[in-house]
Request: fold
Amino acid sequence: MTIHTEIPQVAGQKPATVHPLWLRLAHWLNALAVLIMVASGWQIYNASPLFDFDFPSTVTLGGWLGGAIQWHFAGMWLFGFNGLFYLLMNILTGRMKRKFWPLTPRGIFNDLRAALRGKLQHNDLRHYNMVQRAAYVFVMFDGIVLVLSGLVVWKSVQFPLLRELMGGYDTARYVHFLAMASLVGFVVLHLIMVALVPKTLIAMIRGR
Reply:
């Protein structure tokens, strides 16, 4: 179980930085991009549903198929370039290894059990527990799947190899939808955790 103790604050000393500026900017830009893409994507979905349901118009963006596609393309570029910036900065600064590894099934199980029992600590926000690491690594992978499947749905003819790897155009649509649903699920859990530990929101705004 991952338990971190509070690091004592020296009088007159600034609190340690939890999130650097580049990370905070990438986080909030990504939040905007995800909001645009999901809401417009739901409107696009309604024009040709994969399943026997539609999304209410009150939670969609674009008003009609053409408008939704324009919003989706705008969000796509922001999501893609911002995501690439985030991944590169994590790798180049060493944050990827420092924050998300090691990651083990046993560690995830122990921390998840502690979280369900209300015994998982969040004293030092600079360190991620195993559940957080697994969630963030998953959502990074999910974002890559979203982009790749989205390229197949958007430009199927131009990316024949990628289309085949996705199992064809129709399968790519299902992959894209399921990746979107996974992202929405992550966002919901993320917001719940923020509500339970409000200081994480303050740290993502102020950096400390």
Summary: Residues 65-92 form the longest helix (28 residues). Residues 1-11 have pLDDT under 50 and may be disordered.
